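INSTRUCTION: Work out how this chain folds

Fields: amino acid sequence; protein backbone structure tokens

Chain under study, with its fold:
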Amino acid sequence: EELVIYEPEAIIVRKIFDWVGNHGHSSYAIIRLLHEAGISPRKEKSEYWTKSPIDRILKNETYIGDHYYNKSEAVMPRYRLTENKYRRQQKTGRRKRDRTDWIIHKVEPIISDQLFKKVQDQLKLNVKFKPTNRKHNYLLTGLIKCSCGANRNGDGPTGKKYYRCTSRHKNFDRINQCPVGGINVTIADSLVWKTIASLLSDPTQIRTHAERWIKAQQINKPLNDTQKIRKSLTDVENEQKRYIEAYGKGIINEEMLDHHMRVTNKRKSVIEDELATASKNRAITGKIDIEKLVERTTTKLSDLNFDQKKHIVERVITKIIASPKEMIICGQILVPALATVGKVNYEPINRNRRST
């Protein structure tokens, strides 16, 4: 058995992985983006995709060149929907085998291993930071922990919001409750964002990441090669010509022609967008003015709304350990001459109460 890449659909797969891995979109956001791009599911029973096939695509290792056989086995089902006296096959259920029993078959990859790993990490982040109905905004939700080891969650009305240790909900015995107090949300959010903004505005940091981005563009050049994308565009245009010729010869009717032209036009639109993006990336690679980039970054960071700030925080910070006296921030920003762990000390100012 041989697996052959069908380039028009491979471009859609690459676009889905790019949306998640490089832009941080969720599965539901992918459904919206696919609909806006005019890309329907393969069977076209509906114009909207569903979450399950997108999740299967994002977790399919075949796209990085590792196709597996012997992944599951037939077993007796836990429950039968119908009970017949005679069954030709009794084992109608399926069970996933241990990964050591899988048989690997190498195929041509569609995406890079690096992008696939980024997508898997992003899927975990999507679960961790899944939005819920909250009355108030908490910048550090899902990241901040208590010094006792338990998580902290936002609690309190506007103006009196605190990150409190969750152990107080789990233990009813006051003797066993965590003795560490709450953290004022306004102060904590402000200090953490100020620290991140100063690091992201550092010229050395921006230069390092810009050079890394240029290098990544050079490494991934085969995936963004304009010649390859132009060939896919030519193939779709030739396919449309064949449909028109078939209609002229009476092989297909007008309804079938309209259907095929509608499908190929959607694929053509996706390929044209891919070509425009690839051409743009090639044009700007190696032509980055660091000073202008620093100035633009600083301006952007000072004019972000809460959702944009939270998007950045979730991708920069991995964990915060906080007590009323200090916060230890663990992040992924490479700070020259500093570790990735920093302490932010703070004290209350003009407050007629105990330490916040």
Notes: The longest helix spans residues 254-284. The CA atoms of residues 81 and 188 lie 55 Å apart. The chain has a mean pLDDT of 78. The first strand starts at residue 66 and ends at 69.
